[in-house]
Predict the structure.
Amino acid sequence: GPATLPRRSYLEHADVVQGEMDLDAGLGRRVAEPGRLALSRRVRRAMARRHYSAGECMVEAALAYGFLVQRLDRVYLDCFPALGPLYAQYGFRVVPGAEAVFQASLRTEVLAMSATLDLVPAPVRQRIDCLAGEHDRMSHMTVAAVVTKATRRDNGNEQKADATGCTALHNP
């Protein structure tokens, strides 16, 4: 049968989320619950020098890897309620019945969200397509500094995006 939700040991509404995952699995969908994301100090410094948000780049890299490299149909996550709006910008929606609730073992509120590729907004989709293309070409994905417009300020200089709409942090 489908794998058990790893966060089941602490998530108060784990049964609700596990039920959603089981429904997806029953329909033949590939689903996953990512672990925690982390960036090396070196990459974080390089991103800060270029005025890029590490959190946003990590979310986009994770979406690219999950949806376009691993070919997942749905991704689940849990987060603090304050991060819900951030993830909503990337197409995540609160799992019905898994709204923010106090998690005794964590001593804080947590909610569960999920996303599918068709919920990812078009501008984000363009950027994650770029990251996945990098993975296809190089067998790895640099946590990229993905530009949201044609140019991005970098220490007072404009940095032009390439034809695909993204630039990577080379040799951070």
